[in-house]
Amino acid sequence: MRKAFKSTLALGSLLVAVLASQSSAFASGGYSPDASSVNENSHSLWIGAWITAGVVGVLTAILILWPVFFHRKKNEDFPRQTQYNVPVEIAYTVIPFIIVAVLFFYTAKAETKITHIDKSPAQHSIHVNAIQWSWQFTYDDAANKPTVTGTPDQTPVLVLPQGEKVRFTLTSNDVVHGFWIPEFMIQMQTLPGVENHLEFTANKIGEFPGRCNILCGRAHSQMLFKVKVVSPADYQTYINSVKVA
Ligand SMILES: [Cu+2]
Predict the structure, then answer these.
(1) CA 65, 63, 5 angle in degrees (round to 5)?
(2) pLDDT tens for residues 191-215?
Protein backbone atom coordinates (compact mmCIF):
# COMPACT_ATOMS: atom_id res chain seq x y z
CA MET A 1 0.00 0.00 0.00
CA ARG A 2 2.81 2.38 1.01
CA LYS A 3 4.77 1.34 -2.09
CA ALA A 4 1.77 2.06 -4.30
CA PHE A 5 1.38 5.46 -2.64
CA LYS A 6 5.08 6.27 -3.17
CA SER A 7 5.00 5.26 -6.85
CA THR A 8 1.80 7.28 -7.38
CA LEU A 9 3.52 10.26 -5.76
CA ALA A 10 6.61 9.78 -7.98
CA LEU A 11 4.42 9.54 -11.09
CA GLY A 12 2.53 12.65 -9.99
CA SER A 13 5.72 14.67 -9.48
CA LEU A 14 7.03 13.51 -12.86
CA LEU A 15 3.79 14.66 -14.52
CA VAL A 16 4.00 18.05 -12.79
CA ALA A 17 7.67 18.39 -13.88
CA VAL A 18 6.79 17.57 -17.50
CA LEU A 19 3.88 20.03 -17.49
CA ALA A 20 6.04 22.74 -15.92
CA SER A 21 8.78 22.27 -18.53
CA GLN A 22 6.13 22.58 -21.24
CA SER A 23 4.29 25.34 -19.42
CA SER A 24 4.08 27.82 -22.27
CA ALA A 25 2.91 25.12 -24.72
CA PHE A 26 0.56 23.82 -22.02
CA ALA A 27 -0.81 27.28 -21.23
CA SER A 28 -1.46 27.97 -24.92
CA GLY A 29 -3.23 24.61 -25.35
CA GLY A 30 -0.65 23.33 -27.84
CA TYR A 31 -1.53 25.98 -30.43
CA SER A 32 -0.09 29.37 -31.23
CA PRO A 33 -2.55 32.19 -30.46
CA ASP A 34 -1.44 34.20 -33.50
CA ALA A 35 0.04 31.93 -36.22
CA SER A 36 -2.73 33.00 -38.59
CA SER A 37 -5.79 35.26 -38.63
CA VAL A 38 -7.86 32.14 -37.84
CA ASN A 39 -5.93 31.47 -34.62
CA GLU A 40 -6.89 34.94 -33.41
CA ASN A 41 -10.53 33.74 -33.32
CA SER A 42 -10.11 29.99 -32.70
CA HIS A 43 -7.55 30.10 -29.93
CA SER A 44 -9.69 31.71 -27.21
CA LEU A 45 -12.54 29.32 -28.14
CA TRP A 46 -10.14 26.37 -27.84
CA ILE A 47 -8.86 27.47 -24.42
CA GLY A 48 -12.38 28.37 -23.22
CA ALA A 49 -13.68 24.93 -24.24
CA TRP A 50 -10.82 23.25 -22.30
CA ILE A 51 -11.51 25.33 -19.19
CA THR A 52 -15.23 24.49 -19.42
CA ALA A 53 -14.40 20.80 -19.88
CA GLY A 54 -11.99 20.97 -16.92
CA VAL A 55 -14.57 22.56 -14.59
CA VAL A 56 -17.29 20.09 -15.66
CA GLY A 57 -14.83 17.18 -15.35
CA VAL A 58 -13.66 18.13 -11.84
CA LEU A 59 -17.24 18.75 -10.61
CA THR A 60 -18.37 15.40 -12.05
CA ALA A 61 -15.42 13.59 -10.45
CA ILE A 62 -16.27 15.17 -7.07
CA LEU A 63 -19.94 14.16 -7.43
CA ILE A 64 -18.86 10.57 -8.18
CA LEU A 65 -16.13 10.34 -5.50
CA TRP A 66 -18.15 12.00 -2.74
CA PRO A 67 -20.64 9.11 -2.28
CA VAL A 68 -17.83 6.57 -2.84
CA PHE A 69 -15.90 7.87 0.18
CA PHE A 70 -18.57 9.38 2.43
CA HIS A 71 -21.60 7.18 1.87
CA ARG A 72 -20.05 3.75 2.16
CA LYS A 73 -22.18 0.84 3.34
CA LYS A 74 -22.10 0.89 7.15
CA ASN A 75 -24.38 -2.07 7.91
CA GLU A 76 -26.21 -4.90 6.18
CA ASP A 77 -29.49 -2.99 5.77
CA PHE A 78 -30.62 -2.32 2.24
CA PRO A 79 -30.31 1.48 1.78
CA ARG A 80 -33.38 3.65 1.50
CA GLN A 81 -34.40 3.91 -2.16
CA THR A 82 -35.48 7.27 -3.54
CA GLN A 83 -36.88 8.32 -6.89
CA TYR A 84 -38.57 11.25 -8.64
CA ASN A 85 -36.51 13.99 -7.04
CA VAL A 86 -37.92 16.75 -9.23
CA PRO A 87 -35.54 19.60 -8.24
CA VAL A 88 -32.49 17.39 -8.91
CA GLU A 89 -33.89 16.18 -12.24
CA ILE A 90 -34.60 19.75 -13.34
CA ALA A 91 -31.07 20.79 -12.29
CA TYR A 92 -29.33 18.03 -14.25
CA THR A 93 -31.39 18.83 -17.33
CA VAL A 94 -31.08 22.61 -17.20
CA ILE A 95 -27.36 22.89 -16.25
CA PRO A 96 -26.04 20.81 -19.22
CA PHE A 97 -28.41 22.70 -21.52
CA ILE A 98 -26.92 26.01 -20.35
CA ILE A 99 -23.35 24.66 -20.83
CA VAL A 100 -24.14 23.47 -24.37
CA ALA A 101 -25.92 26.75 -25.21
CA VAL A 102 -22.95 28.86 -24.03
CA LEU A 103 -20.44 26.70 -25.95
CA PHE A 104 -22.70 26.85 -29.03
CA PHE A 105 -22.92 30.64 -28.82
CA TYR A 106 -19.14 31.12 -28.71
CA THR A 107 -18.58 28.48 -31.42
CA ALA A 108 -21.11 30.09 -33.77
CA LYS A 109 -19.61 33.54 -33.08
CA ALA A 110 -16.03 32.38 -33.87
CA GLU A 111 -17.13 30.35 -36.89
CA THR A 112 -19.00 33.32 -38.39
CA LYS A 113 -15.81 35.40 -38.18
CA ILE A 114 -13.54 32.61 -39.48
CA THR A 115 -15.68 31.80 -42.52
CA HIS A 116 -16.43 35.44 -43.35
CA ILE A 117 -15.57 36.35 -46.95
CA ASP A 118 -15.02 40.03 -47.69
CA LYS A 119 -16.97 41.62 -50.55
CA SER A 120 -13.80 43.18 -51.90
CA PRO A 121 -11.35 40.65 -53.30
CA ALA A 122 -8.46 39.51 -51.07
CA GLN A 123 -4.88 40.45 -51.94
CA HIS A 124 -4.19 36.93 -53.25
CA SER A 125 -6.17 34.03 -54.60
CA ILE A 126 -5.20 30.35 -54.53
CA HIS A 127 -7.22 27.38 -55.76
CA VAL A 128 -6.75 24.19 -53.74
CA ASN A 129 -7.94 21.02 -55.45
CA ALA A 130 -7.87 17.71 -53.59
CA ILE A 131 -7.25 14.52 -55.55
CA GLN A 132 -6.85 10.90 -54.49
CA TRP A 133 -4.10 11.05 -53.05
CA SER A 134 -2.55 14.47 -53.07
CA TRP A 135 -3.15 18.17 -53.63
CA GLN A 136 -3.09 20.65 -56.49
CA PHE A 137 -2.35 24.30 -55.79
CA THR A 138 -3.12 26.86 -58.51
CA TYR A 139 -1.85 30.39 -57.95
CA ASP A 140 -4.56 32.54 -59.54
CA ASP A 141 -2.44 35.65 -58.79
CA ALA A 142 -0.10 34.99 -61.68
CA ALA A 143 -1.42 35.64 -65.20
CA ASN A 144 -0.44 32.15 -66.39
CA LYS A 145 -2.08 30.55 -63.30
CA PRO A 146 0.73 28.11 -62.48
CA THR A 147 -0.30 24.83 -60.86
CA VAL A 148 1.69 22.59 -58.55
CA THR A 149 0.50 18.98 -58.41
CA GLY A 150 1.77 16.68 -55.68
CA THR A 151 1.86 12.91 -55.32
CA PRO A 152 2.12 10.76 -52.16
CA ASP A 153 5.85 10.42 -52.88
CA GLN A 154 6.39 14.07 -53.74
CA THR A 155 4.41 16.08 -51.22
CA PRO A 156 3.48 19.46 -52.66
CA VAL A 157 4.36 22.78 -51.01
CA LEU A 158 1.77 25.54 -50.60
CA VAL A 159 3.62 28.85 -50.54
CA LEU A 160 1.87 31.75 -48.76
CA PRO A 161 2.82 35.41 -48.34
CA GLN A 162 3.32 36.54 -44.75
CA GLY A 163 0.84 39.10 -43.45
CA GLU A 164 -1.27 39.26 -46.63
CA LYS A 165 -4.78 37.91 -46.94
CA VAL A 166 -5.34 34.95 -49.27
CA ARG A 167 -8.72 33.81 -50.57
CA PHE A 168 -8.81 30.04 -51.03
CA THR A 169 -11.19 28.24 -53.35
CA LEU A 170 -11.45 24.62 -52.27
CA THR A 171 -12.62 21.84 -54.60
CA SER A 172 -12.23 18.09 -54.98
CA ASN A 173 -11.69 15.92 -58.04
CA ASP A 174 -13.20 12.73 -56.68
CA VAL A 175 -14.34 12.19 -53.08
CA VAL A 176 -14.69 14.31 -49.94
CA HIS A 177 -11.32 15.40 -48.54
CA GLY A 178 -10.43 17.81 -45.73
CA PHE A 179 -7.98 20.68 -46.18
CA TRP A 180 -6.29 20.93 -42.79
CA ILE A 181 -3.39 23.06 -41.53
CA PRO A 182 -3.19 22.16 -37.80
CA GLU A 183 -0.88 25.06 -36.87
CA PHE A 184 -3.36 27.56 -38.36
CA MET A 185 -6.31 25.93 -36.53
CA ILE A 186 -8.17 25.63 -39.81
CA GLN A 187 -9.87 22.79 -41.63
CA MET A 188 -12.48 22.88 -44.34
CA GLN A 189 -13.91 20.09 -46.45
CA THR A 190 -13.28 19.92 -50.16
CA LEU A 191 -16.36 18.51 -51.89
CA PRO A 192 -16.77 17.18 -55.43
CA GLY A 193 -18.90 19.58 -57.49
CA VAL A 194 -18.90 22.30 -54.78
CA GLU A 195 -16.68 25.36 -54.35
CA ASN A 196 -15.88 26.20 -50.75
CA HIS A 197 -14.24 29.49 -49.87
CA LEU A 198 -11.99 30.52 -47.05
CA GLU A 199 -9.91 33.62 -46.36
CA PHE A 200 -7.04 33.95 -43.97
CA THR A 201 -3.67 35.57 -43.39
CA ALA A 202 -0.58 33.61 -42.35
CA ASN A 203 1.28 35.71 -39.76
CA LYS A 204 4.57 33.88 -39.20
CA ILE A 205 7.36 32.96 -41.57
CA GLY A 206 8.11 29.23 -41.41
CA GLU A 207 7.09 25.77 -42.55
CA PHE A 208 3.99 24.03 -41.27
CA PRO A 209 2.58 20.56 -42.00
CA GLY A 210 -0.74 20.18 -43.83
CA ARG A 211 -2.96 17.10 -44.05
CA CYS A 212 -6.20 15.65 -45.32
CA ASN A 213 -8.43 15.03 -42.30
CA ILE A 214 -11.39 13.23 -43.86
CA LEU A 215 -10.90 9.48 -44.29
CA CYS A 216 -11.03 9.46 -48.09
CA GLY A 217 -9.78 6.01 -49.01
CA ARG A 218 -6.78 3.72 -49.24
CA ALA A 219 -3.93 6.27 -49.26
CA HIS A 220 -5.64 8.92 -47.11
CA SER A 221 -2.70 8.96 -44.68
CA GLN A 222 -0.34 9.90 -47.51
CA MET A 223 -2.25 13.06 -48.47
CA LEU A 224 0.34 15.33 -46.91
CA PHE A 225 1.47 18.79 -47.95
CA LYS A 226 3.70 21.47 -46.58
CA VAL A 227 2.80 25.13 -46.02
CA LYS A 228 5.71 27.49 -46.47
CA VAL A 229 5.11 31.08 -45.36
CA VAL A 230 7.55 33.52 -46.97
CA SER A 231 7.85 37.30 -47.29
CA PRO A 232 5.51 38.92 -49.89
CA ALA A 233 8.54 39.63 -52.14
CA ASP A 234 9.65 35.98 -51.98
CA TYR A 235 6.07 34.93 -52.69
CA GLN A 236 6.03 36.99 -55.92
CA THR A 237 9.40 35.54 -56.94
CA TYR A 238 8.08 32.04 -56.22
CA ILE A 239 4.84 32.30 -58.21
CA ASN A 240 6.72 33.80 -61.15
CA SER A 241 9.14 30.87 -61.06
CA VAL A 242 6.52 28.09 -61.01
CA LYS A 243 6.22 26.34 -64.36
CA VAL A 244 2.74 26.28 -65.90
CA ALA A 245 1.35 22.74 -65.68
CU1 LIG B 1 -8.10 12.95 -48.67
Answers:
(1) 25
(2) 999 999 999 999 999 999 999 999 9
